[in-house]
Amino acid sequence: MPFFGGIGRWTRLELAECRPYPSGIVLLNYRVRAGSA
């Protein structure tokens, strides 16, 4: 799914912005990992 790939890239950018939110980072990271797998 090309759309998912684009989202993964966006998640990475948002991850850096969600730095003050450890919970959000973990959730985002988990989502990206699941998509990569």
Rg over CA atoms, rounded to whole Å, is 10 Å
Main sheet specs? none
Q: Helix count, per DSSP?
A: 2
Structure class: mainly alpha
Describe the structure.
This protein has one domain. Helix content is 84%, strand content 0%. The protein is built from 2 helices and no strands. The protein has helices at residues 2-17, 22-36. Helix 1 (2-17) packs antiparallel against helix 2 (22-36). The model has no long low-confidence stretch (mean pLDDT 59).
Properties at a glance:
single chain, 37 residues, mainly alpha, 2 helices, 84% helix
How does the SSE layout of this entry go?
Elements: H1 2-17, H2 22-36
Helix pairs in contact: 1-2
What is this entry, summarized?
With 37 residues, this protein is mainly alpha-helical. It is 84% helix and 0% strand. The chain has one domain (2-36).
